[in-house]
Amino acid sequence: xxxxxxxxxxxxxxxxxxxxxxxxxxxxxxxxxxxxxxxxxxxxxxxxxxxxxxxxxxxxxxxxxxxxxxxxxxxxxxxxxxxxxxxxxxxxxxxxxxxxxxxxxxxxxxxxxxxxxxxxxxxxxxxxxxxxxxxxxxxx
Length: 140
Fold this sequence. Notes:
This protein is mostly beta strands and 140 residues long.
C-alpha cells in the first residue's frame, strides 16, 4: 500500500499571475501576451474547500493512470466514489490510491501498473473511501 502525506486546505492564499492569452497546442498564435488578474490555484482545483484535501503520492502503483511518485492529488470527499473513479481508500488502516471497482457485488481496488495486484476485499477487511481524486498535480 502507498504511504500518502495529507495536506489540508488552509485559508492562506497564494496568488500567481496568469497570462490572458491562450497557449496554442497546434500552431503558435501571434496574439500578444498580457496578464489577467492574479489567480490562486485553489480557485481552479477546489470546488468544495471544507471537503477537499491534498495528498502526496508515494509509490508507483498508479503510473499508467499518470499518477507518479511525488505527485500531489487533490481529493474531494464530497464527490461520490463510484465504479471507475480513482479514490483514496483506507484498507485495514492503511492508505492507498487506486481505481474503485464496484460491480455485481464485487468490490476491489485496482492499480494502474501491471506490477501490482488488485486488492480484492474479503469479508474480514475494512474499507473506507476517504475521497475521490479530482486533480493530479504532476511535475513534468
